[in-house]
Amino acid sequence: MIFEYISNIAFSLALSSMSVLSGADASESAERIKLESIRTHDFHLLLWMTALVAIGVIFEGPEISHEVRTAWLRCRGRRTRVREAVPWITLAAAFGWLLIVIGVAGEGYWDAAVSHDDQAITSFDEDKLGSTEKTAGDAQSNAGAAAKAAQEATDAAAHAREESDKASASSSHAMDLAQGARGEADSFERDIVSAKQQAADAESHLADALRQAAQAQEALERIKTPRSLSHTKEMIAALSAFKGTKYVFTSVSQEGDAIDLLKSINDLLQKSGWERDKSIGGFPAINVYGKDDPDFSVPAAISTVGVHISVESEEKLDVLQSRGISNLPQYVRAALDLNLNLPSNIIPKAEDAAEKLVTVEKGTSTTVRIAVGTKPLQ
After folding, report:
1. In angstroms, rounded to a whole number, what is the distance separating the alpha carbons of residues 150 and 316?
2. CA distance 39 to 116
3. E strand or H helix at 256
């Protein structure tokens, strides 16, 4: 389905602008989006090949009907003169046969292409996970090395103090050696100061290494852990104030994690008394609950990351902002409240969870629109 061009206006009455991914993570995210786009393109072509086969069968229909009718009359023993098929039937059958040949060959080729695309996406995810695990291992190794350096510096400080004590004791044996002994003691004192500084530096490096290891472990857990909702009772209590508000899911990523999160959000809104509107058109689309609810289909998302909430309004942004929250339409206030509660209660929590914006698009619909994309890398 081709949508009309609409102007997206960033609108939030809750918090400030979104965080920006680091350069490396943004590049990896763009690469994954590219792989998913290629896979979607190949899948569309596979569907077109299937459509060609179906159209070819339809074109062969008249010739098959003519042959079946002739065979039926003969089986009943009727002496009828077999009429030859009119030319357009033969031409249609030939054209249908050609479409079937092209469609079957195309199905074989693009089915292999889709399978190859799936393998590329899986390989990309495995490489990303392996890189994160390697970073965590390197950080732990650095922490061990820093701890060892700290222990060596502490031992050196103890040895230097021991030598200083010996030098102080020997200075009492002879006045003529006192000056030299004192100089030696001063040298050892300086060694002590230097050793203490080395120990402090080593402890600082150890703290940095431990912090990096913790951050790497946290990032690894975020990637492995499926998203879910927390504090659902509190959110239901807050969202029930907008009971009867209509909502619809505009898109969902094809990953299982995104589909499961969509189901959790739908269950939350149903328990809050919200009403799910009729599914919007889109191709390809995903039946969220399969045969259990065939009318619950959501268009597949290609490049959406995270959860996005939007509404439509005929009024301009400056007019909405000047009205104040209490004077906004109920469905707009419902969208703002959902945007305030939902992102911050999705676990594992993304770094920009509290900075999501409600998007206002020009239109007349009073339905709150929700898009569920892939899990943010940070």
Report:
1. 63
2. 9
3. helix 256-271
Query: 294 in helix, strand or coil?
Result: coil
Q: Which two tokens stand for residue 360?
A: 């206002």
15, 20, 26, 32 alpha-carbon torsion, rounded to 10°: 10
Cα-Cα-Cα-Cα dihedral sign, residues 358, 363, 364, 367: negative
pTM above 0.70, yes or no: no
Tens of pLDDT, residue by residue over 327-366, are 899 999 999 999 999 998 998 887 666 567 889 999 999 9
Joined tokens for residue 163 = 């030598």
Longest dimension (CA), the chain: 146
Q: How far is CA 113 from CA 39, 51, 99, 121, in A?
A: 8, 18, 20, 13
Q: Give residue-wise pLDDT tens across range 17-40.
A: 334 335 566 787 888 898 889 989
CB 377 within 8 A of CB 29: yes
Residue type at 226?
P
Reference 371, options 295, 291, 272, 286; nearest CA is 286
Estimate to the nearest angstrom the gap between the alpha carbon of 233 and the chain centroid: 25
Cis upstream peptide for 376 (omega within 30°)? no
- Give the length of the chain: 378
Whether the Cβ atoms of residue 354 and residue 344 lie closer than 8 Å to each other = yes
Is residue 113 exposed (0-12), middle (13-18) or buried (19+ Cβ within 10 Å)?
Answer: middle
At 246, the amino acid letter reads: K
> Which DSSP letter does residue 248 get?
E
Write the DSSP string, 322-372: HH-GGGS-HHHHHHHHHHHHTGGGEESPPTTGGG--EEEEESS---EEEEE
DSSP 304: -
Contact (Cβ atoms closer than 8 angstroms) between residue 121 and residue 39: yes
Phi, psi of 15 (to 5 degrees): -140, -175
Beta strands in 163-274 (DSSP E): 228-229, 246-252
pLDDT digits (tens, 9 = 90+) for 99-149: 899 989 988 998 999 889 889 888 888 888 888 888 878 878 887 887 888
Q: How far apart are CA 109 and CA 333, in angstroms?
A: 50
Beta bridge mates, 358 = 11, 309
Q: What is the dihedral of CA 128, 131, 136, 142, to 10 degrees?
A: -160
